[in-house]
Amino acid sequence: MAMRKLLNVSQAAWLALTAACALIAVASTSAPAMAQTVKVAPYYSAGPGTQSLTTTATTDTSIDWIDVGQTDRMLVPRTGSITAVRLYIPNRTAISNLYLGICRWSSGNTWNVAQWTPALTGPFFANEVNTFTLATPLAAQKYDVMCGRIEWSTPHTQNLASLSSILLTAITGNGNSVLPENCYFQMNATKPSTLNTSSMTVIPNNGCPVIEAWMTRPDVVGIGDSIMQKDDSTADGGTLLTRPLSVSTGQSGLSIPYYFTLSHPGLTYQEMGWGGQTTVQIQARFAQDAIALKPSYVILDGGVNDVYLSCSTATGCTAAQMTTIENAIAQMMSAAKTAGIRLFVMLIGPWTGNGSDATTAQMTSIDAINANTISAAPTYGATVIDQRCVVGQFRSTGPAGNCWDIQPQYLLGDGLGVHLNSTGEQQVANLITVARQSFRHAGTVSLKGAGSQK
């Protein structure tokens, strides 16, 4: 098949191609390894939906849609070049042009179309995931969202059936029920440079035609709860659910993975933090959101939400509750070891501020959980990040030598008592050390020096 501006391959061909690339990379020990491409967004996978979007109109000639969503689950999690996109197309009848793009939040309900692909004119494969390899990559910025446009050569009564909408369920975290994603569409518009969701139609029943974004794998993945999520974007409007740490408090700040890669020029990173999640919830998506990205390093945090949501302020965590946390952390360390990924696991840190201090009983339980992590980590080849006495200080009501309270100069003033400001996050990032010699990830990719792919 000749490549024009974009190349579309069927799902079967895509799987065969990626398998062949993997074999080449494994077999080629002396030649440079091929750059691996991985899905970076969204949290969902393209595929057949449970509802078909239909209309009875007979004059429709185009549809635009945007995968905005309510939380980070739909956002592109890092800046970089999107080199491939994937979309399920059940009905390809009369499609003349398909455009896929990235949309960037401007203000209110307005999203600018930062870039459209050139027109995709086929071939399109019906009833399967279509993969489009881009000759001109989409230049995405962190927290962009995917958008699309279909044009038809002949109007017909089921234009929307060209898309298959996956129903996205609500996820509960941090005591709140997070709404499912909301995606929007509009009919019969000229090719847009902006999309305004207030004037578009919400796809019913929280459905969304998922567009996957693929990039070269990141060198570093940070995964965990809101402590790993923190960044400086206002791209989603700064709602509490989506950007709780920089926007709602008015304190701009970056993240621990950012500061780690800042001191190691050439390394790329991707954050997969999800505010409010427990260790069990993080572990449930660890394979998809960390291992599948094929990084060389993973930075993991978790545990504070388990204690906050479940452990008694009077008596602390039960033995069963601590075992649940410890087992989830151990399973993630084991998965990283099996995948050949170097894992850095953060201890549960100091917890204080504005009346949000963890109690003595809770902090005692946290000390026990941390002691277990320190003991278990060598078994899995994991490295412990012990930031407690770097960013913490002594609490007079605790045992000798404790570092239960965050030092004031490192505390983010959000009233939650567990989040560090940018200076504090730099202190944590400084604890992560890596050797500067060659190493291999899963026998496929070699990195040297500053992380350039060789």
Q: What keywords describe this structure?
A:
alpha+beta; Rossmann fold; 2 domains; 7-stranded antiparallel beta sheet; 5-stranded antiparallel beta sheet; 28% strand; disordered C terminus
* Main beta-sheet annotation: 7 strands, antiparallel
The number of distinct helices, counting runs of at least 4 residues, comes to: 10
Instruction: Report how far the terminal alpha carbons are from each other.
Output: 30 Å
Structural class: alpha+beta
Report on the structure:
The chain has a 7-stranded antiparallel beta sheet with strand order 14-7-6-9-4-13-15, with no helix packed on it. The chain is elongated, with a radius of gyration of 23 Å. The protein has 454 residues and is an alpha+beta fold. Helix content is 21%, strand content 28%. The N terminus and C terminus are likely disordered.
Q: Briefly, what is this?
A:
With 454 residues, this protein is of the alpha+beta class. Helix content is 21%, strand content 28%.
